[in-house]
Amino acid sequence: MARLALEGLTKAYGTAPPAVDGLTLEAEEGEFLALLGPSGCGKTTTLRMVAGLVPADRGRIRLGEEDITAAPVHTRGIGLVFQSYALFPHMDAVGNIGFGLEMQGVPKAERQARVAEALRLTRLEGLGHRRPRELSGGQQQRVALARAIAIRPRLLLLDECLSNLDAKLREEMRGEIRDIQRASATTALFVTHDQTEALSICDTVAVMHRGRIEQRGTPEEIYERPATRFVASFIGRMNAIDGPAPVMTREGPLGAGETAMVRPHRVRLLREGAAAEGDNAASGTVRRITYIGDIVQVQAATPLGPLAAEVSGASPLWRGLDVGAPVGLAWSSSDTLRFPA
Amino acid sequence: MIFRALVIAAYGFLLAPAIFVVAIAFSSDRFLTFPPPGLSLRWFATLFEHEQMMAAMQRSAILAAIVTTLSLAIGVPAAYAIARLRFPGRGAIFAALTAPLLLPTLVVGLGILLVFFPYGLAGTWPGLALAHLAVTLPLVVRIMTTAFATLPPDLEDAAATLGATPLKVAFRITLPLALPGLIAAAALSFLISFDEVVISLFIVGPRLSTLPVEMYRYVEGHTDPMVAALAVVLILLSISVVLLVERLVGFTRTVSK
Amino acid sequence: MKGALPFLLLAPALLALVAVFVVPIATIGRIALYVSEGSGAMREAVALDTFRTLFADSFTWELTRNSAHLALLCASLATLIAYPIALFLFRTESRFRPLLAILAVAPLLVSSVVRVVGWLVVLGDQGLINAALLSLGLVDRAVPLINNWTGVVIGLTESVMPYVILSLLAGFGRLDRTVEEAAATLGAPPWRVFLRVTLPLSLPAIALGWLIGFVLSFSAFVSPKLLGGGRVFVLATEIYDLAMQAVDWPAAAAMALYALSLTLLVLAAYTVLTRRVAA
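Structure tokens for the assembled complex are given below, as produced in the milestone run.
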């Protein structure tokens, strides 16, 4: 339960460009911060530096008032949930969860009480005496979480810890992790490459690219007002139109050497003959129709390049539409972003 | 079909000596005669009354226990360093420590004699124990390096994040998880030292001889079923060690690695 | 402190290695240059006298031929007999596989002297085979199967087999059941599948197994000594006799170096060959 501040954190492996390059980032007390980025962006290295498993080349790590940059791992009091869970196979769930308390020298009676509490929080009552291999994937995940929170960490780190679960279980666990983090008011840093995960459970998202933070903001800010072209294209689906082209953006007309971006669900689909509304329009022919759950994406070839529009599956707009059919697309300049190419 | 017959025949050839030595050990005859004219336990009785052999067996057991303890005490830390720590020359040190397995034991034995004799180490307990290290230590290093290197990832890191000091990590996580390898390494060290004959032949003394050496000398001189009885005892010892290890950790897992 | 930890952990093992391996091998090299003065005495020197005597003696060449011949024969026989076992262990999904695997390497877990005793029981004049031959009336008198080359070849072949089996198993990595199945679906009968697919794919394993068998047989001591009954002379038995009976250490050391370099030569040749084949 402390504020985390990373200042100019840098780590290079060998001669390659630094995996983490002067990274600066803060997480407020009790905040649930997602560190989101594609694989290889340096997010796991960052997390391991915070945990103390990898020494930083440069920069500072502050936790609360304390500078922990050089503190040994076992003195940091940071709970880490590993992607592999890293449960001790030779101990049962209780042994795993109580391990950190034992290391802190917590007396046995209190230890038992706190383990029981962690088991209850993670809904593992009755499974305490099972070994990891006797537990399902979701249960193992919960033990790993219980083990990390049992030590009442000053900071909770989660490393892609939902990626080994199937889709349905993952959704369930998201909610549980969120609830547990809120209840304990622990500052948490959640490393993931899965944007849905990051946007749905965290207060704040920091998008990481090439060892640096590209943008830090609420899920809504990140989604609606991406600060860089990378963030715009990494988060959600995006149409890109290279300038110069007759396109109006939020920031003005699109010129040479610039790219306009608009989300497919902001693009309206017009049947032939319908009047265009909005200050941007294009006509073209349908290339492909794709179902994405409840949404239908219609991709069209236009003079501006390939553009996609998304409509509700229930919408009559796309019914009867076939590949090769002429179609109109329209969108507003206020939904259109402009970035240097 | 043909393949199956070939496999059975090959196994037959491989195991023939062990199978038929058991049959002859219970012979009532004075020679290694097939088929035994009658069954008896007389040769086991003769063996257990053979003071020289019994004393040698006891010495070999003590020696094997010492050698095993030493090999583990020396080999396990080295294997840990090779498998879990980062330092320059790791590969070369591993190669060097396991190199004695590649060279003929006869040559190693001769070399040890040439070094130990001038120092009066030949025919002494310390000399024999050290000499056996030449074969058991490389084996322990090899088995334990694999055991440490194949530990599941992240467990030691996880323990550290939970507040365990490096020493606690070693004793609470690393060693317990490497226990199967440790038991297998101990069992193999013991058997190999107990059975070692080539190096021992070079450096046993008149008053300090091991069981395999005594057996070797006995076979050079006579062939009666007592030595078959002794062979059966040794085979039984090996089987019990294997069964014990299998019981504890699953021996097959460790040999198949 | 952190930099010293690996060194602290490694130091005892390295010290032991130096004491029981490095110094002994170096000492062999040193004493081979001493001059023997007969009846156990030797003079410190840096002389090649011992090697000169060694290579001038036709007995050395006979021993070399004997050792090479024995190793060739035993390695080939052991590979031939070990191959079916290894292939079977590699493929079987039987629940007895662990047991059968242990049995295949079990001879490693008993002393070589014990195995010699076993062979005496099987091959001796009144042993299993002669008893069978005599009672079937196939021979009139016992066929001498021990105290000669026959016994040594049989015993040594068996004693290197477990190592050959392990090497074959290690080398079978490229052998893929689906490739054999593919050949079968293309109309190849089992024996052609074996000749055209299985065997070619297992050639590297066979080469490795044979090499291990050769190197081990070449320097084997217990089987030639005990099953040969003093009538089989190879480099290994001679090294032992020189050191322990004649107590001519320079001669023993020189011959050990000679035998060792032959072994290393074979290993080097194998490495060069496999590299060339792989390239």
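Chain B has a mean pLDDT of 90. The two ends of chain B are 30 Å apart (CA to CA). Further analysis is deferred to the final report.
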